[in-house]
Amino acid sequence: xxxxxxxxxxxxxxxxxxxxxxxxxxxxxxxxxxxxxxxxxxxxxxxxxxxxxxxxxxxxxxxxxxxxxxxxxxxxxxxxxxxxxxxxxxxxxxxxxxxxxxxxxxxxxxxxxxxxxxxxxxxxxxxxxxxxxxxxxxxxxxxxxxxxxxxxxxxxxxxxxxxxxxxxxxxxxxxxxxxxxxxxxxxxxxxxxxxxxxxxxxxxxxxx
Length: 208
Ligand SMILES: C[S@@+](CC[C@H](N)C(=O)[O-])C[C@H]1O[C@@H](n2cnc3c(N)ncnc32)[C@H](O)[C@@H]1O
Description:
Blueprint: H1 3-17, H2 23-34, E1 42-46, H3 52-57, E2 63-68, H4 71-83, E3 89-93, H5 96-99, E4 106-112, H6 121-131, E5 132-143, H7 153-162, H8 174-183, E6 186-193, E7 200-207
S-adenosylmethionine (SAM) is lined by residues 4, 8, 46-49, 67-70, 73, 95, 112-114, 117-118.
């Protein structure tokens, strides 16, 4: 098991109990995502965590595969889906690359609050582009710290990791992130800052 998977396994229970920091912004992201969803869509969400967002979107699409590196997160997510009577989500443990979807097979890919946590972000974005159909959508919400005073949090990461209290965090600017998404073959259709602090960037991008 990787260090990151073990970190999130340990955090799964407390993450499931934690409250959404800014409910209005979360609901805006849900609503804006659903503007792009249609009933026949095949969707993948990577880094799905405890599955709350996949469960909300499931009634609007044909099928969601919810992927996460943490087996404990997925156990909570699948229990929640069962309790909610949602039957069109399947769960897969691992990274998006390990899932290895067929090229051009998906209508939408979601990566929410996860891309700033992966060391190989550009490879993950390239994988999203590979597995989406032309015209498919990529929805992301990503912490972009480069131009924020919060970037200094990166200095705390080694200690936080040592104490088991922080995951690795990768620092980028919003412009850098948008440039990477565009360079991978997407056209950005929505891009806005999180209301609080302005560091989380919500983006909907369409594969050209
Ligand atoms: C901050 S949580 C976000 C969970 C959920 N998307 C949300 O918005 O509440 C990050 C999640 O990404 C998962 N994760 C971290 N690195 C990953 C990777 N390389 N591939 C897939 N999942 C990953 C973690 O296990 C964790 O569940």
